[in-house]
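Colleagues,

Please find the record for the two-part complex below.
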Amino acid sequence: MGKAIYEKNDIKLDNYNLLVDEALFHNANGYIGVRSAFEEGYPENFKTIRGEYINGFYDFTQTEQAENIYGLVHEKQTMLNVADTQSIDIYFDDEKFSIFEGTVLKSKRWVDMDKGITGRFVSWRSPKGKEVEIKVIRMASFYQLSLFTIEYQIKPINFSGDVMIESNHNGNVKNFFDPHDPRNADESFQYLTPESCYIQYGASYINSHTSKSGLEVCSCVKNFLSGESERQFIINESNAQCQMSTIAQPGKKIKLIKYAVFADSLRVENCKVTAASEMKKALSVSLQELYKHQEDYLAEYWENSYVEIQGDNELDMALKYNLFQLIQSVSKDEYGNIAPKGLSGEGYEGQYFWDSEMYIQPFFTITNPEITKSLIAYRYEILDKAKENAKLLGHKKGALYPWRTIMGKECSGYFPAGSAQYHINGDIAYSIIAYYLATKDLDFIQEKGAEIIFETARLWMDVGNFYNGQFHINDVTGPDEYTCIVNNNYYTNALAQYNLQWAVKLYFQMRKLPEFRKMQKRIKLSYEEITEFKKAAEQMYLPYDEKLKINPQDDSFLQKKHWDIDTIPKKNFPLLLHYHPLHLYRYQVCKQPDTILAHFILEDSQPQEVIRNSFAYYEKITTHDSSLSRCIFSISASRLGLEDKAFKYFGDSTKLDLMDLHKNTKDGIHTANIGGNYMAIIYGFGGLRIKESGIYFAPILPKKWTGYRFRICFENRRIIVGITKDHCTFFIESGEPIAINVYKKEYLLDGKLTIHRKKTLRRED
Amino acid sequence: MGKAIYEKNDIKLDNYNLLVDEALFHNANGYIGVRSAFEEGYPENFKTIRGEYINGFYDFTQTEQAENIYGLVHEKQTMLNVADTQSIDIYFDDEKFSIFEGTVLKSKRWVDMDKGITGRFVSWRSPKGKEVEIKVIRMASFYQLSLFTIEYQIKPINFSGDVMIESNHNGNVKNFFDPHDPRNADESFQYLTPESCYIQYGASYINSHTSKSGLEVCSCVKNFLSGESERQFIINESNAQCQMSTIAQPGKKIKLIKYAVFADSLRVENCKVTAASEMKKALSVSLQELYKHQEDYLAEYWENSYVEIQGDNELDMALKYNLFQLIQSVSKDEYGNIAPKGLSGEGYEGQYFWDSEMYIQPFFTITNPEITKSLIAYRYEILDKAKENAKLLGHKKGALYPWRTIMGKECSGYFPAGSAQYHINGDIAYSIIAYYLATKDLDFIQEKGAEIIFETARLWMDVGNFYNGQFHINDVTGPDEYTCIVNNNYYTNALAQYNLQWAVKLYFQMRKLPEFRKMQKRIKLSYEEITEFKKAAEQMYLPYDEKLKINPQDDSFLQKKHWDIDTIPKKNFPLLLHYHPLHLYRYQVCKQPDTILAHFILEDSQPQEVIRNSFAYYEKITTHDSSLSRCIFSISASRLGLEDKAFKYFGDSTKLDLMDLHKNTKDGIHTANIGGNYMAIIYGFGGLRIKESGIYFAPILPKKWTGYRFRICFENRRIIVGITKDHCTFFIESGEPIAINVYKKEYLLDGKLTIHRKKTLRRED
């Protein structure tokens, strides 16, 4: 699978590209994330988002509302930039190393997706003529999540003399503040205050606390320099600098290893003690062994996540790069989740959205289900907060998950496109069911999943009402934020129906299990409620237009005005930055395809004809102003046999970050787009569906490709799927034989199965 | 008509009541307003909203939005507190006069509605035993709008000695800031900066400028003390104190007259020069003559506004108090309008709303039409700003009046219950047509009114769209803010239809007039547009439910949940302070009766049966959380022959301010409630309607009353209407004979007409 290295040569030194590279080459392991700023910094007038982040580690920040309306959000959470451990300054005699001075003879940066490291190489001639080669390897360890390492190699070429190294550990940090970017609305406030800074056993410690959330973080840094001749520490209350000296000799490598570990009070009792023990653990093996562990971890990850595009190497590499970002970004415990920018930047303030469940989790569910479990555990962790949120919005029962959050409280300041997106409840329920269908892990459902499904189901009963024999859900916002606060959003209602159906199913499936009964008692779930769930699900109103034979996005969508997208000036996209919400709400125009997404994930709820008509209808009016849009069109086009369209929509978006297509990769990589892209291959081209009735495939092959292969994990089986020009092969690597459905025909998969690939596909046929 | 004096004895000295009295006894003339704080102030720990305001004189204030959404309001306007000219401190030897010390032997405050003055009388014994009577008369002159006077009389009873008077003129002022009141969201920022303070010809001048709006105001104060022995001024950059001495002798009155005038750069070129000439003008006649002018002005006002309730003196007095507040509050020029709190407080920041057109203007239109003209002229003045506002909201043509404003730019921070209230366009058009129907003043319509009607009509064409052969208006908010951003709000559509119909009518009526043709050319109004107006008006979609035979408030109102108002705990009203908007939007619950209001003002657009059914339907679900609600129910109940209900809804609301029923009179009096109350008598009980086809009456008599009489002005005629137990009499005081319609029968009114009063009334009969 894929080329293991993404490499950039002749690094551009303009500020914009440096910011993009900070994100592209960041190191993360789901716990810590470190943006790849240069250790030695940039010129003074350059902006840098020089951040190190801990997943889920936040402070509360104030947010003003223009009018004092009941229940609006006045306090958000923001992921904090914690201590800077990446700074290293080098002096060759009186010359400070900086590639903004002197001459760069050669430079490159890379990410090695197999080794789990990033690298930088510079061949540099100082203004006074000293030539030196510098190579830096960085790693955020998957083996030890608290650990970030920098291996800094200096090779003097044509000189000898004193080398002085200042390795900094700086607790005086702020979040990045760019007043011109609406997505980073924070003020430049120091949320994190260092309260102690000390040296212990040769390591520096900085312990800081947050301004309002009552959290604490301790970072510990230790430096090892080969041939070290002298060392001293210069410390103040927020900063520890380790000054080391050595001697340069032509051709002789000097090596500095800098270990940094973090401990935070979300996860541990005593941060200082934990930081010390984590540092001890890190130093208990060699750096080479740590690299080996990293490689082993990733070897397993790549095996699980195997996907290979044949005939398009560049795409294949980009895909590998992307999936590497997912494992870098996703939390490995229940205190965090996966943010839209992962741990690579401060966009969206590190909060978690529906992106997790609907775009990213599907990848993990069929490749690394343990991670999905952890993501669901996070939602379980904040279930009480979701119940409080439901109360705040006037609901008498149930849980309403916040639209954006870190610790469980709502962070969306503009509720019509935020808190009103009740579909997040359905999204979370859907993703739990998807986990269950792919794993049949009833224990976990019993332990955590079912309770979420019941509490979200309860909420639908409170938000909706029966009217004329149908169950209506009024005044919510669907995923498409270009129409807000609508009645009977198709997507929302379809997911609510699914949520309710599964609450009923799980109840009957598990009602006799003792653990389940305990939970049922605890949450006071009555049989009458189940009956109501059933009734509401059966009578759920799903908008349908007889004339057009499509599902309208909501009750009144079709009576809105038409707006020919082709007539809108290019500079006016994305529309949300150029038109008042009321204007957008009044048109049949979509940021992303609400109904098409529902048709993808719940395809059996509508006849193929309706799905086909809807695709054609919404395609014309969708602007794709959201990076979550095109992948869904691609998947649906595959389903409908529109192979060229499917590939067109799939298009370049695999390279969205690598090519900075949205011009905001500097704020962080796009995790949901990556997940959507993966889905476009597996669910789209591969036609994978996992339903209660079994597992389905209906592969197509993009014309540009010679083939593709992927591995999935299904009910503890590992299955390899390969598509070539003429054949589809299925191979069961481990686990019991199983019936699979390919092109609507059932086969027993026991070993290897080869089927002729259908060349044209109209799914309704 | 009515008792001329509203009086309060034994003034309560607790802080809350003092704040209420500041509003109740404030002096205003539509240009300046002065809250009645004590001249000598309160104890230090007391709050005071010690304000002096100029109608329409504002500064820009920042308002934060939680998310950076395109087009939201970031800058509001707030009416400024200008220089304090009401401070007077009195020292009897070493004792400072303060009724919070010593003993109050007697105290009272009053408003004399005939004389146009307020008074305060205190009989006081100082801690050391000095007895003194103090009487203060204050006036905001209608004769000279720039002028506010204080006549301060001191009568020493049992002592003699030195009296020192410090009369202050203080430019160091801020707006009131109460962080606990959502309606006063301003920060405590000094918007007004004094730039010069000087003495000239014995008067002090303070000239100040605003922080952002580029406006300037100059105040000038001059003091005259009887028996003055010594005088000196103590001034600094923002404050001028005039210290005067005299001698107290038992029984001998000491009199101080303090004149204050204001000039502002909205209205005059040079504020300092104007302030000086206004002071000169004020001093060119005696105070007694100024009082006489005031009385003359009000005599005419009371004659025009004559309304008398027989059999309920208290109500009659309250009514007179209320109408006095209207003439105090309403601007006499096009630079101001009438704010919800008039000039009596800072509630709603002195901005103007639809209250003007729909609740207050109807009173002026039929009693003092020149004032309505001025209110319309204000809307004409800000027409260009309304066009800019339309552009901001994405409209390609027309004008969209801001929901709340001072100088024409939108001030509503929360657009779903603000800018989305497009009905304000219809309200303004309706009020202009009402003015036209009552006056037939085609000159003014040609000069200003018609252009507004065309530009608002144009907007409807851009906001709405034809769908299935009907004209729809989507995504607007009606007057009832408990459901926001809805499709086809009945009220909005009905008014839009009326707006469009009249645009067509006026076009055909005036198209040959030369002035009209000039305007038509200037605004590029084409015949094709008129044709479109006509088509949209004819095809306007007005929601109607076949089953219930009512007009639903909007397309989806009836599918919303029911909420039995009786089950809601009392403490949870008003609902908007206790429930999230999304919760409210999801229920059939009304803050005020949208559709009922439309049925009142456009009663011929629906059959009586639909109006009756709608009344019954909405009555059950309306909370009257708005002070604009009950009066409309009262009017409609009168119309439907529900006499007891009509009187019940009319109820105590005439005393809303006098009895501080809403517990917020401290923030200012409620001008729209006053207007609504007046309408409940004239349009409700009296059944007055002025239509294109003529003038209609259908009087009923509340059981508690023995009769009532009122005068209206109609097409330059003055008509007195009197209702007694058995008769209705109509008397034409001036003007040509005219046909009037009483109880659906036409009569020629030429002199006096007496008709038997109908005892029961079902209007559809």
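Chain A touches chain B through 52 residues (CB under 8 Å).

Comments are welcome before we finalize the supplementary table.
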